[in-house]
Design brief:
alpha+beta; 36% helix; elongated
Length: 578
């Protein structure tokens, strides 16, 4: 049957129920596909890889420069090798503990505050700005606060205040004691007056004149009486000498233009708060230099107030508030001041506290060095970063968020509203809340925008004062009786106080933040501990990396290429000799 077609086998490929007919031989189960790793060549090489790894470990233990490794890997008894293993592990544990201590020291305390070896002469330090706030806030001839408030609060018939007097009263009330802001009896009365008051204008009209407040100012042979300028503070209108002008204090185009905060007209000349006075700057530069030390180089002030201007209803304390602050710092009379009561003689000896920071500390975060460099923190209103200026901005922002308005003395934009009298309680609560939060560590709503740390380069003036009583008014009256008898009556009507401000010493030691434990010290400390405990050096680390990374890769590559010609026992992966 050679000529006939060969008979084909017809089978159901997927079972008899399927109609599809598959042409071909009978189907049989196939063997599972082999994994690549189970190929005969891999199965032959894998034992040699394990053998080569053992040889590599033995070679490393014999040749390692780390102490103790050769005792563990050498041909010793199990008990002896276990003993050296325990010693080696104990050394590693002790080494890790010591390195942890070194790291903690580097991480937590890398900076030290030390004294500079070179003293700084006092004539290279600026004299502090002096801000004087009289407690008498109004001239009695212009406004009688006690009478006006009784008329307003008690509603005396036929004695109502006109609009002008009412504006004056609402303006003066904002600088009176907190009794008028917090007492529940007055809150309803203030709500009846909803008109806005230009508080600075009211205070300027009523405040005693500067020439009647500062009778005398002398620094060496310089008559400095005419160098006082008006400064707007939370205590009202005050008088400042040696402070910044508004252009030097604030950024341009940020503040409103309704009124000015600082009336100083002098501009800075050859001075910055970071670098001090430039080389070649004259002694007459601005701000004023420290002329010397001791009472002979003191700034002498005669301050006076008329008896008739004393209104104990508005403010319980009388006399003058004095604040000594750096020229570039805005005065905050509620934070740092000395109270000079009437008819007192006060001497204030000042000791500047200067801190500078090494530039090498810029690699650390401000939180670690606990200070800001000028380019690390920018304020919204102030040109120069300083802790006190930052706190004032922070208080302003927090007050605006809580009350929807700010105090008249706070820096603000044109769109920010000044709080009215019935909102003064909210102002005081906001200030108290921020004070409690900053001292207890609580996070306020604006804490992430506040975080007012000291400036890295800063100066502060520590003051010590002594006070004695005097009858300086009577003394002047007796002395003037011969020269100008007509002025005797005017002097007797005044309460006169004297102030002398001077540097204690002619030279001062500055403090410097510097690095006490840097990265080099960390590496040296860790390297010394590793060398002491394990004999580890930089070469040992490179050696360990070589045996852990480079050699295994080379070994596997050689075995894959020449696995059938590998010879064990020498610790090296090499070709067999024919």
């Amino acid at each position: 049957m050679a000529g006939k077609a060969k008979k084909r086998n017809w089978t159901h490929g997927l079972g008899p129920e399927f109609k599809t007919i598959i042409l071909g031989p009978p189907l049989y189960p196939r063997e599972p596909i082999q994994h690549a790793s189970d190929s005969p060549r891999v199965r032959q090489i894998w034992p040699k890889i394990k053998e080569a790894l053992r040889d590599l470990i033995d070679e490393y233990c014999i040749r390692s420069t780390i102490h103790g490794i050769n005792y563990i890997g050498s041909k010793r008894s199990i008990l002896e090798r276990f003993w050296w293993l325990v010693v080696f592990v104990g050394s590693i544990y002790g080494c890790s503990q010591l390195i942890q201590n070194v790291y903690r020291k580097w991480h937590d305390h890398p900076i030290i505050l030390s004294y500079d070896e070179t003293p700084l002469p006092v004539w290279k330090i600026s004299f502090p700005a002096v801000t004087i706030c009289p407690e008498a806030k109004m001239e009695a001839e212009l406004f009688n606060f006690t009478d006006a408030f009784y008329r307003y609060a008690h509603g005396i018939p036929n004695h109502e205040l006109d609009a002008n007097k009412l504006n004056m009263l609402m303006g003066i009330l904002q600088v009176c004691d907190s009794f008028f802001h917090s007492h529940d009896l007055f809150q309803g009365l203030y709500l009846t007056y909803n008109l806005s008051v230009d508080v600075p204008s009211v205070l300027k009209k009523l405040i005693p004149d500067c020439f009647n407040t500062v009778l005398l100012c002398r620094l060496l042979q310089w008559d400095c009486k005419n160098n006082f300028s008006e400064t707007l503070t939370e205590d009202g209108i005050c008088y400042t000498i040696n402070g910044f002008s508004q252009n030097d204090m604030f950024k341009p185009g940020v503040l409103h233009n309704e009124y000015v905060y600082l009336n100083e007209t002098k501009s800075l000349a050859n001075w910055s708060y970071m670098l001090g006075y430039s080389l070649g700057a004259s002694m007459n530069t601005y701000p004023i230099r420290g002329p010397g030390s001791g009472s002979k180089a003191a700034m002498s002030l005669d301050l006076s107030t008329f008896y008739k201007n004393t209104d104990i209803y508005c403010r319980a304390s009388q006399g003058f508030k004095l604040s000594l602050h750096p020229p570039h710092v805005y005065p905050r009379m509620s934070k740092n001041f000395i109270l000079l009561t009437p008819k007192r003689d006060m001497t204030i000896s000042i000791r500047p506290r200067i801190i500078i920071t090494a530039q090498e500390l810029r690699i650390y975060t401000p939180e670690k060095r606990n200070c800001y460099f000028p380019d690390e923190r920018s304020l919204m209103f102030f040109r120069d970063y300083e802790e006190s200026n930052c706190e004032l901005e922070c208080l302003t922002n927090y007050t605006l968020k809580q009350c929807g308005c700010v105090r008249f003395s706070m820096p603000r934009t044109a769109a920010t509203r000044v709080c009215a009298m019935h909102e003064m309680r909210c102002l005081e609560r906001a200030e108290q809340s921020q004070f409690k939060g900053s001292n207890s560590g609580e996070d306020l709503a604006n804490s992430k925008n506040c975080n007012c740390m000291p400036a890295c380069d800063a100066i502060q003036y520590d003051a010590e004062s002594t006070i004695t009583t005097n009858e300086f008014g009577k003394t002047i009256a007796l002395r003037m009786l011969i020269f100008d008898p007509e002025k005797v009556d005017e002097v007797i009507k005044k309460q006169i106080s004297k102030v002398e401000i001077f540097f204690t010493e002619a030279q001062y030691i500055t403090s410097e933040r510097s690095e006490i434990f840097g990265m080099t010290d960390l590496i040296a400390g860790c390297g010394g501990i590793l060398g002491l405990c394990l004999g580890v050096s930089f070469f040992s680390i490179v050696e360990l990396l070589y045996y852990c990374l480079a050699r295994p890769v080379m070994m596997v590559h050689d075995l894959q290429q020449h696995g059938d010609r590998y010879v064990s026992g020498s610790g090296l992966v090499r070709k067999a000799e024919y």
